[in-house]
């Protein structure tokens, strides 16, 4: 850099410092003094619980990204439901899981005048302005999998509550232990939000009289790393020879623990259960290591989203708390607080039913 | 080089003119053939989608014309977006944050400029390095979180239209900047010096053009514009995130090359580049409206890019063969 260049850079820097310090002094819009502009307009529409579900509803599914095996199963459930309801199903989505690319797809769906958009938001806020535009254009919005900001969607399909998962884990452990004995938890990381919330519920459940003969001897952490989880499972069985059940509320942990048990002398003596993916767990269920594990059924999420979407578009529900609707084979649902619809207890996978699930 | 020798005569058949014409044709066909394409609301969506690419493409054109490249622009955008979120949560006013982000963008650009011109390093290597480095800084600043509660007056302006019509407010910004950049590139001695640098940096140096200084300032401007786009991006999506704009640099370079700017420097026009931006965005928009999948969109973009490099070469070689044959037959007579 020549001398004159350096001088000019300095001058430019000085000028800009002056510029924004002036702006800073003039007292602009800060986080603390901005007006309360975020209030969502409440919808004036009222629900007609007796309204018939309309046929020919155009409903588009916008998952976080296309060609993801998990979301493919979710949206396939949506297609089944839309076919049952004689609507028009459409699946669109970006190749990358970024919020900004979802926005372009929302805009396209507005242009195509869809009746309902079901979205798994990559960023709850980034999709919000265009979802609001969609709502203004008369399109109903159903969140699934991953919620958008509350004011931008009508309802959200919550796959499972913390309470439901914790209860289900203890119930399975109790059954597999035969009502009494030592159990251990193999979790993800010590500060994993979801896992810790579930473990808290499990501890409350274990304190109940019907579970009083179950003894939680240790919570180990495999850090959601296959090798570490494998070693931790090994360590648990060496430290606690009377262990009856390992409960792993993470798909990585349950698969690693099952792999260790199936290849060790503990096979058949120690049970593994928890939250797992059928495709990862199939071989351990087939070889008898695992008798039972659970997860919400992703296809049901899409199925329920489709029924909720068509019910919204037909005026049967508006998304207000307490409204009820029927969701085909899944039965009756009631909308909870903030427009949340809870799918229900997780699905249990057993040697008898595992072949029906391909995800 | 041939363009320098015979100015004007190639104008009518230059690749940039072909792209401008092609863009017009695509827009007309799409308006008739693609349902919902020609509506005013779709125009708004299209304009909002192409704005960040178009803005970043302006200084990128200058840089590529001089034979250099800046691949760090999208990471600069991400870094300013992350900073914007952090500043906002720390209570700075938005009126302070916006100029601050532009200045920080300029500083990041100056770092690129210094590495390229001060240390004489190849710009491709330098800006691939800062692409990773700036994105890394963005993640350090904001992690994988997001800041979303920006004032509605600002987010509303960025997504809003002039007087509630169908022309987005931010389009004014693009028009003004495009005019400034266009005039500088095509109607000033400075603009001509950029072509001279791109055609032959050494010759340009010996004819009195301050090559290093010019390039340095181009990087500063590129960084400042990327910083500005970081602000606009954050406000448009009401979301400051470290991964904002990831991959945008490729879309920008693609549009610039498609618009007829030579990657080796010395050739290209701004109208061609803007047509390239519009062509890519309009094609994607129209294909999405026709429910063409994302993968197919990538294929179309890829084919167009290869064609934009290949076709001008084929045209030139056909023309040379034809000229040679004419000269030979003239000599025979």
Can you walk me through this structure?
The complex is a heterodimer of chains A (359) and B (333). Chain A contains ten helices and 14 strands. Chain A is globular. In chain A, the strands form four sheets. A six-stranded parallel beta sheet of chain A has the order 2-1-3-4-5-13, with helices on both faces. In chain A, strands 7-6-8-9 form a four-stranded parallel beta sheet, with helices on both faces. Chain A has a two-stranded antiparallel ribbon with strand order 10-14. In chain A, 40% of the residues lie in helices and 17% in strands. About 2% of the residues of chain A have low confidence. Chain A has two domains: 205 residues, Response regulator (Rossmann fold); 134 residues, Response regulator (Rossmann fold, 3-Layer(aba) Sandwich). Chain A starts with a helix and ends in a 10-residue tail after the last strand. By secondary structure, chain A is of the alpha/beta class. With 333 residues, chain B is mainly α. Chain B is globular, with a radius of gyration of 21 Å. In chain B, helix 3 runs antiparallel to helix 13. The N terminus of chain B is likely disordered. Chain B has a single domain, classed as Orthogonal Bundle (ABC transporter involved in vitamin B12 uptake, BtuC). At the A-B interface, helix 1 and helix 3 of A face helix 3, helix 5, helix 7, helix 11 and helix 13 of B.
Main beta sheet of chain A? 6 strands, parallel
End-to-end CA span of chain B:
30 Å
Number of domains of chain A: 2
Average pLDDT figure of chain A: 88
Number of helices of chain A: 10
How many strands of chain A? 14
- Order of adjacent strands in the largest pleated sheet of chain B: 1-2
Name the shape of chain A in a single word.
globular
């Amino acid at each position: 850099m020549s001398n004159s260049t350096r001088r000019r850079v300095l001058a430019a820097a000085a000028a800009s410092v002056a510029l924004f310090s002036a702006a800073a002094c003039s007292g602009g819009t800060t986080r603390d003094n901005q007006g309360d502009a975020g209030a969502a307009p409440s919808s004036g529409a009222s629900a007609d619980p007796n309204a018939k579900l309309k046929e020919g509803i155009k409903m588009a599914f916008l998952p976080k990204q296309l060609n993801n095996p998990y979301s493919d199963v979710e949206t396939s459930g949506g297609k089944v439901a839309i076919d049952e309801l004689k609507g028009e199903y459409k699946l669109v989505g970006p190749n990358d899981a970024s919020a900004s690319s979802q926005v372009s797809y929302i805009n396209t769906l507005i242009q195509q005048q869809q009746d309902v958009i079901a979205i798994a938001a990559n960023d709850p806020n980034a999709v919000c302005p265009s979802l609001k535009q969609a709502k203004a254009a008369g399109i109903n919005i159903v969140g699934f999998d991953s919620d958008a900001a509350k004011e931008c969607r009508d309802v959200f399909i919550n796959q499972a509550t913390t309470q439901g998962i914790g209860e289900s884990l203890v119930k399975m452990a109790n059954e597999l232990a035969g009502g009494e004995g030592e159990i251990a938890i193999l979790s993800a990381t010590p500060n994993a939000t979801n896992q810790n919330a579930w473990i808290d519920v499990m501890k409350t459940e274990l304190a109940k009289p019907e579970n009083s003969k179950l003894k939680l001897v240790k919570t180990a952490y495999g850090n959601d790393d296959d090798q570490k989880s494998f070693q931790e499972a090994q360590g648990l069985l060496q430290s606690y020879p009377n262990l009856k059940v390992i409960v792993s509320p993470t798909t990585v942990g349950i698969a690693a623990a099952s792999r260790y048990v199936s290849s060790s002398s503990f096979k058949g003596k120690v049970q593994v259960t928890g939250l797992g993916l059928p495709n990862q767990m199939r071989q351990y269920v087939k070889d008898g290591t695992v008798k039972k594990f659970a997860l919400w059924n992703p296809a049901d999420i899409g199925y329920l989203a489709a029924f909720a979407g068509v019910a919204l578009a037909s005026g049967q529900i508006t998304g207000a708390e307490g409204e009820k609707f029927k969701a085909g084979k899944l039965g009756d649902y009631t909308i909870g607080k903030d427009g949340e619809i809870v799918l229900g207890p997780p699905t249990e996978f057993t040697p008898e039913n595992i072949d029906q699930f391909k995800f | 080089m041939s363009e320098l020798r015979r100015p004007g005569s190639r104008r009518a058949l230059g690749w940039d003119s072909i792209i401008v014409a092609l863009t017009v044709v695509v827009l007309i066909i799409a308006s008739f053939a693609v349902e919902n394409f020609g509506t005013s609301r779709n125009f708004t969506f299209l304009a909002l989608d192409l704005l960040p690419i178009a803005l970043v493409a302006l200084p990128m054109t200058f840089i590529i014309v001089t034979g250099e490249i800046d691949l760090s622009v999208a990471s600069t955008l991400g870094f300013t977006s992350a900073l914007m979120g952090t500043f906002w949560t720390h209570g700075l006013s938005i009126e302070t944050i916006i100029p601050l982000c532009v200045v920080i963008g300029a500083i990041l650009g100056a770092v690129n400029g210094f590495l390229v011109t001060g240390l004489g390093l190849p710009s491709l290597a330098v800006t691939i390095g800062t692409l990773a480095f700036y994105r890394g800084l963005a993640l350090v600043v904001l992690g994988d979180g997001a800041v979303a509660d920006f004032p509605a007056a600002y987010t509303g302006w960025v997504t809003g239209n002039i007087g509630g019509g169908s022309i987005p407010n931010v389009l004014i910004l693009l028009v003004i900047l495009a005019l400034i950049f266009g005039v500088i590139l095509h109607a000033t001695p400075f603009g001509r010096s950029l072509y001279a640098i791109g055609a032959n940096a050494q010759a340009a140096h010996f004819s009195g053009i301050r090559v290093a200084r010019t390039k340095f300032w181009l990087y500063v401007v590129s960084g400042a514009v990327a910083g500005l786009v970081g602000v606009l991006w954050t406000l448009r999506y009401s979301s400051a995130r470290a991964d904002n704009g990831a991959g945008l640099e490729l879309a920008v370079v693609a549009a610039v090359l498609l618009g007829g700017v030579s990657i080796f420097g010395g050739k290209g026009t701004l109208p061609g580049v803007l047509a390239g931006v519009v062509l890519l965005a309009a094609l994607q928009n129209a294909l999405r409206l026709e429910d063409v999948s994302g993968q197919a969109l990538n294929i179309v973009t890829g084919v167009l890019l290869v064609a934009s490099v290949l076709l001008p070469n084929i045209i030139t070689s056909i023309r040379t063969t034809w000229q040679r044959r004419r000269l030979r037959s003239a000599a025979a007579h």
